[in-house]
């Protein structure tokens, strides 16, 4: 039986979670319970959908053909499923494309066990550390000031060096309607007020962002 990864959602193209146009996978299940987390729907390890890693690799191949610059793996906590994420990232490496992998984890590097470290080392870019609501930041793609961006490969250094200290005026947040007309959003609204303003503005228009979305390619 092929390996399976439990996912909360997947979207392509996403322009608000890393360099360029990306396939983003939100992995289901997170044990870290950061106070103020805006992704509580991803905490339940039994939630989401179980998907074959082989099928996800097919999605990555289709995204590459459609011009994707990279894959972002977010959560939830991706390293809670280190074996399946590792299989996926090994498959991505075999594609050989100029395609970077950005992996989010709420763990610090020195908290990882050997399997988690092995998987983390397959990423070009790692963003590490829990969300700390009392440490707001303007740094792009990070939710709080303690979170660190690690550039592990030449491709990562080429694409991301200018972003390590970059603070945009507004954090990139993308809002889209799916094929069924439901809204989904992606990004790191690094202040709780931003997410609340997003919710209020859309609620005024009659939309809710509370439900989990799911769309394979
Ligand atoms: S690590 Fe991320 S998903 Fe998990 S509780 Fe913290 S902010 Fe939420």
TrEMBL record:
- Pfam families membership: Fer4_12
**Protein name per UniProt:** Anaerobic ribonucleoside-triphosphate reductase activating protein
> InterPro entries this protein is in?
Aldolase_TIM, Organic_radical-activating, rSAM, rSAM_sf
UniProt keyword 4Fe-4S, yes or no: yes
PANTHER family assigned: ANAEROBIC RIBONUCLEOSIDE-TRIPHOSPHATE REDUCTASE-ACTIVATING PROTEIN, PYRUVATE FORMATE-LYASE-ACTIVATING ENZYME
Q: Which Gene3D superfamilies match?
A: Aldolase class I
Report TM segments: none
Q: Which Gene Ontology MF annotations are present?
A: 4 iron, 4 sulfur cluster binding; metal ion binding; ribonucleoside-diphosphate reductase activity, thioredoxin disulfide as acceptor
Keywords (A to Z) from UniProt:
4Fe-4S, Iron, Iron-sulfur, Metal-binding, S-adenosyl-L-methionine
Q: What is the lineage of its organism?
A: Bacteria, Bacillati, Actinomycetota, Actinomycetes, Micromonosporales
Which cofactor does this sequence's record say it needs? Answer: [4Fe-4S] cluster
């Amino acid at each position: 039986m092929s390996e399976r990864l439990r996912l909360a959602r997947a979207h392509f193209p996403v322009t608000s979670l890393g360099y360029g146009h990306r396939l983003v996978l939100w992995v289901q299940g997170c044990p870290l319970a950061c106070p103020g987390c805006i992704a509580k729907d991803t905490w339940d390890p039994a939630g989401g959908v179980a998907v074959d890693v082989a099928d996800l690799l097919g999605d990555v191949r289709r995204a590459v053909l459609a011009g994707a610059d990279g894959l972002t793996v977010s959560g939830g906590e991706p390293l809670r499923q280190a074996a399946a994420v590792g299989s996926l990232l090994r498959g991505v490496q075999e594609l050989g494309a100029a395609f970077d992998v950005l992996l989010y984890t709420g763990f610090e590097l020195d908290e990882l066990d050997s399997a988690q470290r092995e998987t983390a080392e397959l990423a070009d870019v790692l963003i590490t550390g829990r969300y700390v609501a009392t440490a707001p930041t303007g740094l792009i793609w990070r939710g709080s000031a303690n979170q660190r961006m690690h550039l592990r490969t030449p491709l990562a250094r080429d694409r991301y060096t200018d972003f390590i200290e970059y603070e945009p005026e507004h954090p990139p947040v993308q809002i889209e309607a799916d094929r069924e007309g439901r809204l989904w959003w992606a990004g790191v609204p690094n202040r709780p007020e931003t997410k609340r303003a997003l919710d209020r503005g859309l609620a005024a228009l009659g939309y809710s962002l509370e439900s989990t979305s799911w769309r394979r390619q």
